[in-house]
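User: Structure please.
Assistant: Input sequence and predicted structure:
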Amino acid sequence: MKEGQVVDLGVAEFGAVWELQKRLVARRQAGEIPDTLLLVEHPHVVTVGRRIAAEANILRRDMPIFEIERGGDVTYHGPGQLVGYPIISLDGNERDLHAYLRHLEDALIAVAATLGLPAGRNPGWTGVWIGGRKVASIGIAVRRWVTMHGFALNVTTELERFRSINPCGLEAAVMTSLAEALGQPLPMAAVKEATTAALGETLGRRFRPVDAAAIGA
C-alpha cells in the first residue's frame, strides 16, 4: 500500500481550494509531495463542468458560479456536504480513468454501508445512489496522470439549494443526503474518518493526517 496524506481544510472558499489543487497537482507531478487527499466543506457555490449542456442547467444565479475543468455537468457545494479532492499520481495499471471513477464510487458506497444504508450505482450515471436518489456526485480532471477534483457527498446538506440548478442534468428532487436517508443528523467528523478509510482501501493508499500548513494551505 502506498503512503499518502490527508488534509482537513474545514470550511474554505471554493476558489481558494481550486487554486490550491492546481499547486498541489504541480508539486505531485514534480514528486515534491506524496498523494494527497483534501477534505473540505465549501460555502454555497455552483460549479460547472465541461459537459456542453451545463450552462442550460443553471436555473438561478443566486450563488457564485465557477466554470472548471472537471468532467460532468453542474453541481452545488455547500455546508454539510463533504467534498473530497484526491491529488493522486496514477501509475502503471492504475491509469484507467473508468476504474478510478469506480474506486471513488466504491469508497462512498462503503461509507454509506457503515451507516447501514444500502447505496449503489445507477446504470448510465456516475455517482452514488440510495433508493433511487443521488447522495454523491463525482467529477474529475487529470493532468499528466495526476488527478484533481473528485466527489461531493451529501451528509447534512441543505437539499433545497439544489433547486437553483438541474444537478448533473437531473431534477433537484432526485438529490438526497445521508442524514435524510437515515432520518437523523450525522457528525461530519465521523463521516470524514469513514471516507478517509474507505478511500485508502479502494485506492491502495495509507492516508496519514497532516496539518493544512504542511501543504501551504
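The chain has one domain: 2-215.
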